[in-house]
């Protein structure tokens, strides 16, 4: 199975891979695209059961990182930058741990080394299998954005478009994920970004990531909840571009 993916930007530029969060598609990164494609070839992918990727059942975070690694192999990409939001960030952490030679630079946005205890994720998986995406979609706006954010509609549409079985499998990957005792092994220069008002992965999760990954820097973005790159694109785009540029020069 190959994840649905697309490239944007100059074909001879260094590659940065952008990973989406649970319930979103590769379009999550649309606000960053005009800026990032000035200097990078951007590779975006859809999670299984999201956007254009087929559903896969029985997923672990290592499986998801393996699927991204397979994309790198498919396109003969050696060292890439990687930025991911939430579940996409956990995929990046796992990729940096399992294939360190491939990850030249890492941005972990609104994510965690452990997304809480497994039970609520298994309950959410059971809910969508039973009732479809609507109950989760109704609750998502308050989880993803600060009150009054006017741009939520396209992101909620991505969530409503997810396949319940694929979404449930991604919940199960989150349930089984715990990288807390391996953070010290991440070699890639890392920037951690947290939304100051994120209830799903609060700033303490970002602090724990940045505290555990050697040399990692932390940026807490004000007036932003879980999808900080959508809510504060100005700040997040500049931070991602700035971090990727410093340790990872154009050949
Ligand atoms: O939708 C949520 O509950 C927030 C979230 C947790 C992991 C992820 O990717 O999104």
From TrEMBL:
InterPro entries per the UniProt record, alphabetical: AB_hydrolase_1 (IPR000073), AB_hydrolase_fold (IPR029058), AB_hydrolase_sf (IPR050266), PcaD/CatD (IPR026968), Pept_S33_TAP-like_C (IPR013595)
Domain AB hydrolase-1: 14-122
GO molecular function: 3-oxoadipate enol-lactonase activity
Record's protein name: 3-oxoadipate enol-lactonase
Any matching Pfam family: Abhydrolase_1
Source organism: Planotetraspora kaengkrachanensis
All copies of domain Peptidase S33 tripeptidyl aminopeptidase-like C-terminal, residue ranges: 187-245
GO biological processes: beta-ketoadipate pathway
